[in-house]
Write a structure and sequence with these properties.
alpha+beta; Muramoyl-pentapeptide Carboxypeptidase, domain 2; globular
C-alpha cells in the first residue's frame, strides 16, 4: 500500500473519530440540566432517548452555528433532554419534545422579538432538519424535532 493511500485512510479515520467526539460532546450538553442538578434529580436518559439524542446532536450543532452566524454570536443550547420529573419541575408540557430527547431550546437571554427572528430564519430549513415546532418563548426559541425515521 502506498503512503498517499495510507494517509487518506488515516485522515478519514481521524475525521470519523473527531465527528464521534463532537456528537458525544453535544449529547453531553443536551443531557445536562441546571434545573435537575439544583433539584438533585437524575437527568440520565433511557436507551430509547439516547437514540434520539444521537440523531438530534448534529442538528443542534447546525442550528447553533447557523443562528450564531446570522443572528447572535452568543447563541447556545439552553435546554435539551429533560427527565419527566425535571420537565414537570420546570413547568414543561407533559408531552414535551424535551422528554423524548427531541426538544431543543436555543438563545442567549433574548427578547421575544429576537426569538421570533430566530424562528423566521429557521423556517426555510424545517423540512430538511425535520423540525416539527418553532415556538418563540421570550428569552429563547423552542425547537421540537420529528426524530429519526
Amino acid at each position: 500500500m502506498s503512503w498517499p493511500v495510507v494517509m487518506v485512510g488515516l485522515v478519514a479515520l481521524a475525521g470519523l473519530v473527531n465527528r464521534g467526539r463532537q456528537i458525544q460532546w453535544l449529547r453531553d450538553r443536551l443531557e445536562y440540566s441546571d434545573s435537575a442538578t439544583l433539584l438533585g434529580y437524575d437527568n440520565s436518559p433511557p436507551p430509547a432517548v439516547v437514540v434520539n439524542l444521537d440523531w438530534l446532536a448534529p442538528r443542534a450543532r447546525w442550528v447553533e452555528a447557523f443562528l450564531q452566524d446570522r443572528l447572535d454570536p452568543g447563541t447556545h443550547t439552553t435546554s435539551g433532554y429533560r427527565a419527566p420529573e425535571t420537565n414537570a419541575a420546570v413547568g414543561g408540557a407533559a408531552n414535551s419534545a424535551h422528554v423524548s430527547g427531541l426538544g431543543l431550546d436555543v438563545g442567549n437571554g433574548w427578547d421575544l422579538a429576537t426569538s421570533k427572528q430566530a424562528a423566521t430564519l429557521l423556517e426555510p430549513h424545517r423540512q430538511r432538519l425535520h423540525i416539527r415546532q418553532l415556538y418563540p418563548e421570550g428569552d429563547h426559541l423552542h425547537i421540537g424535532f420529528e426524530g429519526p425515521r
